[in-house]
Design brief:
156 residues; alpha/beta; three-stranded parallel sheet; two-stranded parallel sheet; 7 helices
Length: 156
Amino acid sequence: DNFWETVPGWYSQTFSQQERHSWAVFDIHWYTAWGGDKCSGRTVPGGRYLCSQAVDEVRPMLHTCIEDDMAKFAGKVDGLKSCSEFSLSTFEDAVLACRNRDILSMYLQEQLDIFEQYRIQGFFWTWRMPYGPNFESAWSYEHIAMGQVAPQESGL
């Protein structure tokens, strides 16, 4: 995996500083869902945290995951930056991913705060997923914005 050693250099050589700061945008997609045991959250053991854990226990774990990757992005790329795909999915298997409103709301806020800190324009994956009920709680911004995620008591 030499993406960060190769692509930012190409980007800087291909676009002038003026272009990189006015219209040429370096874009990434970022998810913890495929983070393995480093950053994923699950309803079953095997990830970094369990969905049933308290928000205050999970927050520093997610903060570190997001911060590490966005700090690398900001440090390697000079110019406009975006993350045009991010979500609230905590695990690659939607059935085993977190659906707890408190966890997902905190996760969203952590991502937005760190994007702002590093001047990265974030774009949530999608507004609506009408035909994917198993994915809605993490991949549909409408779902979380309208407060439709599972309640805290569910333990998910």
